[in-house]
Amino acid sequence: MPVMLLVSALLLVALAFTDAVLHGMRGARLGWQGERATHAADAALLRALTDWDRAAAAALHPGETDTVAAHNLDGVTTHVVRTRVQARLFALESSARVQDGGARPARRAVGRTVRLNWPHPPVYAALTVGGGLLVADSAVILGADAEPAGWGTECALDRRDGPVVAIVARSTSLAPASVVVGAGAPSQPLGDSAMVAFTERFDAAFTALAAVASVRTEDRVLSFDARAAVAPSCPVWFGDGARGAGVEPLCARRWPIVHAAAPDSVRLVGSTAGQGVLLVDGDLVVPEAVTMYGLILVRGRVRVASPASAERPRLVGAVVVQDAGATGSVMESVQLQSSQCAVRRALSAAGMPIPIGPHGWGERP
């Protein structure tokens, strides 16, 4: 009997020790899986930032999400969900699941908020001109912030509270019947010291945007009405700025950057509303009633003049003219209105994500 009792006690001790070892091994395995999952989620998020798809990010509306990347490798599954908060603000959540044959897989998630960093052209007003400017009687230039029709959900967090300056130019001549309204005086001068900074900022922004242009052409005529042959039949040069009225939603989500590199001048024509960024190496001529939302940068001069009996061209966003030859720009018949939302949406197609804040990733259980 004493021997039996002693053997039973040793058996109980051995069972307890074995159970403790098994629990320790299970805990170590779960801890190792958790570390692997955390690092895998971290790596997937870093990869998503490095491989940022500008066009896909620009196509999202505020509040919408998409999956940036998904990978399956050695029992580790990761995916990254991107949520657009506003034009230049995104929230990313990266999750990883590790299953190495154990009964319980480990899942970890890390999150990060990022802000898009894009080129900053010298948008000092609704219309910024580095040379002389003539504004005719039939021109309307407004610094009040505009929200294009049907863009309510897209611009909810990107509206400007107050107006900006309507015109900033080297020199300006305003016709008596012209309508120029904005913050402060109708037109403000661009002085010598400001002109140096203006030129530097214009050249830097133009070069940076041209480097990531989605379309580069030497055609002297750009028509908003030219359509792609493949479905959906979107405008060749620009996205469709109209919302509703039969517009293909995929076309309205395109925010191209068009670099028009014609040696002398470019004519902008067409009745379809366009959107995006237009870069013109030479002069820009708008001879008819076009409609464009976004940002226009012109190295040469601008001449906007449609027939008096026709509808005015409508430009919503911002126009910046370097006028490198100092030949002078003319706004005869045009409606130009500032829109912070349109400019930000257009520039987001050139933006790259920069994490906000100095700290590391925020882990989520």
How many helical stretches? 6
Which structural class do you get from the secondary structure elements? alpha/beta
One letter per element, helices H and strands E, the order comes to HHEEEEEEHEEEHEEEHEEEEEEEEEHEE
Q: What is the end-to-end distance?
A: 54 Å
- Largest β-sheet summary: 17 strands, mixed
Oligomer: single chain
Strand residue percentage: 35-45%
Spans with pLDDT under 50 lasting ≥5 residues?
A: none
Global morphology: elongated
Mean pLDDT: 87
- Number of β-strand runs: 23
Helical proportion, percent range: 10-25%
Based on CA atoms alone, the radius of gyration comes out at 29 Å
Describe what this molecule looks like in 3D.
There is one protein chain. Helix content is 25%, strand content 35%. The chain has 365 residues and is of the alpha/beta class. The strands form 2 sheets. It has a 17-stranded mixed sheet that branches. Strands 1, 2, 3, 4, 22 and 23 form a 6-stranded antiparallel sheet that branches. Strand 3 and strand 4 form a beta hairpin. The chain is elongated. The protein starts with a helix and ends with a strand.
